[in-house]
Amino acid sequence: MNRIGLMAAALVLGGLVAGMAGALALTRASQARAGADATHRRADADAVARGRYLVRAMGCNDCHTPGYPERNGEVPESEWLTGNALGWRGAWGTTYPANLRLSLTAMSEDEWVRYAHTFETRPPMPWFNLRHLGDDDLRAIHRFVVSLGPKGERAPAYVPPTETPKGPYVQFPAPPGP
To answer: Where is the segment annotated Disordered (predicted)?
Structure first.
């Protein structure tokens, strides 16, 4: 083989080696990304499971899921947290449990955490309990609710104490008896 042939062979061989090294680097980078993605999916699944647990343990479904208490909690998860047209009437007026699936899917995790730590509302919502939760728990609740996806309609609007609500409501607290 002449000198030009040797140089061409060296260039081809060098190109093959460089190509193989590049392919190996891409494969390793892809494997690292896949490993990181799997770790992220596991962490996200854990957060969703934690959020599901917190929603149940904190009693969010009791008000925010229609029929939940009446059916002893036997409501499909696909129906959870869609708000309720059953009002709670007291000295403050009549309030309705919000559709959390519409509310939380409209907020980022960070917005939800800030909101949960600062908002105040009318009874019977125990808003003060949310303030005691840590950021990780609030983020888990957000991830769970967002995993359910948006569903349903917004709850009816607040009715002032001077007006009578049109739909069903629970008098809370009940007026004194005879």
So the answer is: 155-178
Question: Encoding tokens for residue 146?
Answer: 């967002």
The structure tokens listed for 122 are 């009318």
Q: How confident is the model at residue 9 (pLDDT cuts 50, 70, 90)?
A: very low
Confirm if 113 and 139 have CB atoms less than 8 A apart: yes
Query: What's the domain range around 100?
Result: 1-178
Assign 136 to helix, strand or coil: helix
Number of domains in the chain: 1
> Taking Cα atoms as reference points, which of 129, 133, 124 lies closest to residue 51?
133
Distance CA 1, CA 7 (A): 10
Condensed to tens digits (0 to 9), the pLDDT of residues 115-156 reads: 999 999 999 999 999 999 999 999 999 999 999 999 999 999
- What the block records as the tokens of 32 is 């690292």
DSSP state of 174: P
Return the DSSP state at 169: E
Task: Provide DSSP, 10-55.
Answer: HHHHHHHHHHHHHHHHHHHHHHHHHHHHHHHHHHHHHHHHHHHHHH
pTM above threshold 0.70:
yes
